[in-house]
Design goal:
This protein is an all-alpha fold. It has eleven helices and two strands, in the order H-H-H-H-H-H-H-H-H-E-E-H-H. The chain has a single domain, classed as NCX, central ion-binding region (A middle domain of Talin 1). A hairpin with a 2-residue loop joins strand 1 and strand 2. It is globular.
Length: 321
Amino acid sequence: MLTAILLFLLGFLLLIKGGDWFVDGATGIAHRFHLPELLIGATVVSIGTTLPEVMVSSQAALQHNSGISYGNAIGSIICNTSLIAALTLAVKPGPVNRSSLKLPAAAFFIAALFYSTIAYTAGAFSRWQGILFLVYFVAYMFLSVKQMTASGEQPEGEEEEQPQRTLLIEIVLLVLGAAAIAVGANLLVENGTIIAAALGVPDSVIGLTMVALGTSLPELITAITSLMKGHGALSLGNVIGANLFNIILVSGMAITISPFAIPAEKTLMGMNSSLLVDIPVMLGVMMLLCFPPLKTGKLYRWQGIILLCIYFAFTAYQFLI
């Protein structure tokens, strides 16, 4: 058990550092070949920061571990919204640009509605549905770049000066980053399964809580660093975009590799907990995060406080009930 915990933590570290290396190498190469800044921020960086979730769920799918494939995607959305975004809102709420939220928010809720409809009617995902999610991802990326090009908007953080590195170092960073993410994902899935068995809880619980938090650690660290430096809350559009990717890219990839059913090991009042708790909480926290700023153009401290309470209640429920 101790060995499994240590390897599980090592998987966390490899995912975090691997993600950093991959993004640094990919953006460096993209800049070297003079790709547009807009395209780099909207594609390379966005996908790079989602790679930990993609690799963990894909690795779990290859091992036919539907609990972690499902739990990582849904749990990461809940974690991103009710812990990471909530933390920044509780400390420093502020105004937002409503127009920049419309596309990612609409795209998320359309994808979530499709995902939920399948979950509640069929109870399982087929390969063609996974492929459809991936097509949706490509279409969303195209629309995002088109929208930003038309508005002249630049993805957050792009203006930072790029460190001077040789092409060889950038390629090494890219390869090492991808390798670290792959190894970290494998350690996380294999040892997460061992820990779940030792604790007597379903794999989906580990996926919804520990694995989801682990793959969201880069975003959490960024949020804390931003607060310590006195900057405002993280971009709400980026949080919504990350959550959208968890449905259409992370889940889409896992379903395409190995179609799976909604986990039913955990029940509440004789009903599947995934359908009664997990998916409703995912939809509820996103509504609580998105609807007020879409209506008023402002983020509020009460949103962050309520979302944090939901996160801790959800986590306690997974392990205690």
